[in-house]
Amino acid sequence: MCLDLSLPERERGERERERERRMTVFHFFNCAILTFGPHAVYYSATPLSEYDTLGTSIKAALVYLGTTLVKLVCLATFLQVSENDTFNPYQELLKAVIGFIDVAGLYFALTQLTHRNISQNHKFQAVGLGWAFADSVLHRLAPLWVGARGLEFTWDYILQGLEANANLVFSISLAALGSLMWLRKNKPKALIPIIYACAGIVATMPSITSYLRRGLGWHFSKVVGFELFTSLVTAFISWQLFATCQRPST
Predict the structure, then answer these.
(1) Contact status, residue 122 vs residue 131, Cβ threshold 8 Å
(2) Domain count, the chain
(3) Which domain covers residue 237, as residue numbers?
(4) Would you say residue 32 lies in a domain?
(5) 171, 132 Cβ separation under 8 angstroms
(6) What is this structure's pTM?
(7) CA count, 13 A, side-chain hemisphere, 188
(8) For each of the chain's 250 residues, which pLDDT tens digit applies?
(9) Coil, strand or helix: which one is 151?
């Protein structure tokens, strides 16, 4: 009798473990779609797919990987390893300076790479899209694979997906501003300081969010909300600047 009673219990336990495995896989795929899906949607829903700019995006992604390698070498050389997670102004300032290597990488991707015969408008979008996708793969794929498949549900990986969406907007906005700085010659002189100021703010956004998280003690959800809001504001300003510079001068 004891064996007969324990067999259904084992079956229920196996079914419960199987259900938990399915739920963790479901959670992982949800987070992965939220993280990487907008990149594919942006490519297919815009004229980028019609003009076959995938090669430009791949080249920009490779430039991002090389730029990240240079940044890692600089960070390992000049930054001190801290035992605690407190905010160090000197270290964060040095990180911000090293972070401008991304701007140099974007400059190379926009001006030095050979592209198909595409317009300036499509070029900066393809470069920004490849840049953002490479960043998401490099910084978020491994944490998703390891953490989102865990048995304990957490909102952190959903928030990471939302953060990846904000980073996509930031990357395209920075590429648009870089396109105006380096490729657009006949832009209004009154807009030049605004373009450079906006590009500087977007380039230092990782240091800004680091200060909010470690200096002011903001929770991750609040930081992601700030990133989403500022990314929309940045996108609107970049779009207005780009549209203004596209108008024929009178």
Answers:
(1) no
(2) 1
(3) 20-246
(4) yes
(5) yes
(6) 0.86
(7) 15
(8) 444 445 566 666 666 666 566 677 777 888 889 999 999 999 999 888 888 888 889 999 999 999 999 998 988 888 776 666 666 777 778 888 888 899 999 999 998 877 666 777 888 999 999 999 999 999 988 888 877 666 566 788 889 999 999 999 999 999 999 999 988 888 888 888 999 999 999 988 988 998 888 888 899 999 999 999 999 999 999 999 988 887 765 5
(9) coil
